[in-house]
């Protein structure tokens, strides 16, 4: 009489929750992923397992081949389907990018929402948790700044429009990651922002941190700082400026304007600044007394585009998302 193969007892942890699981040694990794999705709601393609002696194998390999042994504790990392904005777990990367491109192509005017009861999209496309770092000074002030960012009307507008969902909005400690201004973990599982000054004697300007937030929100869609990323990031910044300009003017609709059809999203963003006449007297782009209005605007636009490019280069250099494991 053959003896029954003993089961392997494993303990999986995800977001502080513990999930015990018993499997046969010949169970496949694909079967394990199915069970983990049932337990945690983390889609299979977004699951990452961390344990000692891990071996990278295909889904048809057994859990024994993968180095999982009886009594092991395994950490599961990955966003849930809800945090991914309701995307179906079976949606392929190609389908996801095609959907994003279709949404971006829709440029119909958007009405500025009046204050009133929040809709279902407000609860879906939002920051689901706010978490300052409790071991840093003045955590309540950090919470207030994070809450202000999360509730900023322009940020809420772009999150609804582009269907962004973020699990946790939190902060980066300057002494732990002094070079970074922002980090997006697992395409929206968490966004971490540099809120404080190097000496912990205050907080960075709201507008500066919000610009970093727009940069990190772009990483919900694009991982690397390629042309796709740059286009969407410029679009988000333009939409934030456009939304605020419409609110300030009491307009009922958001739309284009200025110099006519823009050559690029970055140029369109620069036009938002140029129309407001934001340039430094005597600095690059400053006009001469004999310049025509068109020439003055051209110089302001050129100077503003150069400044925006430099700002984006600094943000890319101080962003920890691209290539982050």
Task: Tell me briefly what this model is.
The protein is of the alpha/beta class. It has helices at residues 29-40, 93-105, 120-124, 139-151, 153-162, 206-218, 227-249, 265-275, 293-317, and strands at 8-14, 17-23, 48-50, 73-77, 110-111, 127-131, 166-172, 182-185, 190-194, 253-254. 38% of the residues lie in helices and 14% in strands.
Question: Any chance you could write out the topology, listing elements then pairs?
Answer:
Elements: E1 8-14, E2 17-23, H1 29-40, E3 48-50, E4 73-77, H2 93-105, E5 110-111, H3 120-124, E6 127-131, H4 139-151, H5 153-162, E7 166-172, E8 182-185, E9 190-194, H6 206-218, H7 227-249, E10 253-254, H8 265-275, H9 293-317
Parallel strand pairs: 1-4, 6-7, 7-9
Antiparallel strand pairs: 1-2, 3-4, 5-10, 8-9
Helix pairs in contact: 5-7, 6-7, 7-8, 8-9
Describe the structure.
The chain is an alpha/beta fold. The protein folds into two domains: 9-18 and 33-53 and 68-78, no CATH class; 97-325, no CATH class. It is 38% helix and 14% strand. A four-stranded mixed beta sheet has the order 2-1-4-3, with helices on one face. β8 and β9 form a beta hairpin. α5 crosses α7, α7 (227-249) packs parallel to α8 and α8 crosses α9. The longest helix has 25 residues, at 293-317. The protein is elongated and about 95 Å long. The protein starts with 7 loop residues before the first strand and ends in an 8-residue tail after the last helix.
């Amino acid at each position: 009489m053959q003896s029954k193969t003993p089961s392997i007892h494993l303990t999986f942890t995800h977001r502080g929750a513990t999930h015990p699981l018993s499997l046969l040694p010949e169970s496949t990794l694909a079967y394990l992923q199915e069970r983990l999705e049932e337990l945690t709601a983390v889609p299979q393609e977004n699951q990452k397992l961390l344990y000692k002696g891990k071996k990278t194998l295909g889904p048809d390999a057994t859990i024994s081949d993968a180095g999982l042994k009886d009594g092991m504790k395994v950490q599961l990392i990955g966003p849930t389907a809800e945090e991914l904005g309701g995307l179906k777990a079976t949606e392929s990367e190609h389908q996801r990018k095609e959907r994003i491109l279709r949404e971006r192509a829709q440029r119909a005017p958007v009405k500025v929402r009046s204050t009133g009861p929040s809709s279902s999209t407000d609860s879906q496309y939002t920051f689901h948790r706010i978490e300052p770092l409790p071991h840093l000074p003045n955590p309540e002030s950090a919470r207030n700044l994070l809450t202000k960012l999360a509730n900023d009307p322009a940020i809420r507008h772009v999150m609804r429009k582009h269907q962004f969902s973020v699990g946790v909005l939190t902060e980066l400690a300057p002494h732990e990651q002094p070079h970074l201004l922002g980090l997006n973990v697992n395409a929206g599982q968490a966004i971490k922002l540099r809120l404080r000054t190097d000496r912990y004697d205050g907080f960075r300007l709201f507008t500066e941190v919000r610009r970093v937030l727009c940069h990190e929100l772009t990483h919900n869609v694009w991982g690397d700082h390629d042309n796709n990323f740059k286009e969407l990031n410029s679009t988000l910044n333009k939409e934030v400026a456009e939304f605020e300009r419409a609110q300030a003017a009491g307009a009922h609709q958001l739309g284009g304007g200025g110099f006519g059809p823009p050559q690029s999203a970055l140029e369109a963003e620069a036009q938002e600044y140029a129309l407001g006449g934001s340039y430094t007297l005597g600095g690059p782009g400053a006009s001469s007394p004999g310049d025509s209005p068109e020439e003055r605007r051209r110089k302001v636009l050129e100077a503003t585009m150069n400044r925006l490019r430099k700002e984006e280069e600094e943000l890319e250099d101080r962003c920890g998302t691209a290539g982050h494991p």
